[in-house]
Amino acid sequence: MKTSFLRRLWVTFSAFVVGFYSSTLNRFAFKGAEHIPRSGGVLIVSNHISAYETIFLPWAIIRHHPLQMVWAPAKEELFEKPFQRLLYSTWGAFPVKRRRDIKAAVVLEELLQDQKVMLFPEGTRHRDGRLGKGNRGVGKIIYDTRPTVIPTALTGFNRWKFPGFGQDATAIFGAPLDFSDLYALDNCKETHVLIVERVMNAIGELLKREGAYVGEA
User: How many CB atoms lie under 10 A from the CB of residue 175?
Assistant: First the structure.
C-alpha cells in the first residue's frame, strides 16, 4: 500500500511530538528495536495494559524507522466524531466493529503484505498488568498473511496519569517468531489457537525477563 510522503511526514512529526512527552518529560524506554525489520509486512503484537498504548507504541517504532506508517485497528466508536475520525485516520488507525468485521480483515490482509501493523491480541485491556489469552482471530490473520511477527511487552503505562512527568514505561521488542511448523498444519481453528498461544507465550517470556510478569488474567 502506497502512502503519500506528506502523510508519512505528518505521522513522523506527530510521533516525535508524542516522543518528547513520553521519553523526555517522562521516561518511556525501548529495548530490542533492532528486531523490527525496515521493510516487508510486519505485525507487532503486544500486551494491552492501557488505552494510551496506541499513541505511544508508534513512537517506539517510528523513532527507528522514520517516514513509515504504523497502522492499527481501533474500535469504531473512536471514529464517530469528525475531528477524531480525521486525526486517527491520518495517523493510520482504521475502524473495526466489535463483532466479526470482514471489511477490516481484508484491510489487515492488504496492509500486512508490506506495511507495519500493531495489534493487541487480548482484545481488551488488563490494567492490573496480567496477561490475558489471545484472540484466535489473530492466529488466523498470521496464518493467512505470514508477516514477520514481533512479540512486544509493554510495562508501566497502566500506572501513568495524564498530564504527568517523570513516569516510567518500557517497550521490549522480541526476536521475530518462527511459525514454520504451524504453517505446515491445516488452516483451521486448532492451528490458529496454537499460533496465538505461541504469541502470548513469547510476550509472557519478555515480561518475565523484564521482571514485570504478574500472572495470567
Answer: 12
* Contact indicator for 26, 164 with CB cutoff of 8 Å: yes
- Please tell me the distance from the alpha carbon of residue 209 to that of residue 121, in angstroms, as a whole number: 20
Across the chain, the runs of DSSP E, i.e. the strands, are 27-31, 42-46, 70-75, 93-96, 116-119, 148-155, 168-173
- Computed from CA positions of residues 144, 149, 151, 156, in that sequence, does the dihedral angle turn out positive or negative? negative
Cα→Cα distances 142→1, 145, 194, Å: 18, 5, 11
- This prediction has a pTM of 0.94
For CA atoms 86, 152, 34, 208, the dihedral sign is positive
39: Cα separation from own chain's centroid: 16
Q: What percent of the chain has pLDDT over 90?
A: 78
3-state SS, residue 137: helix
Residue type, 201: N
d(CA 45, CA 118): 6
String of b and e for 182-213 (b: at least 16 CB within 10 Å)?
beeeeeeeebbbbbbbbbbebbbebbeeeebb
Instruction: Report the alpha-carbon distance of residue 42 to residue 149 in Å, rounded.
Output: 6
Q: List, for residues 15-47, the tens digit of each pLDDT value.
A: 999 999 999 999 999 999 999 999 999 999 999
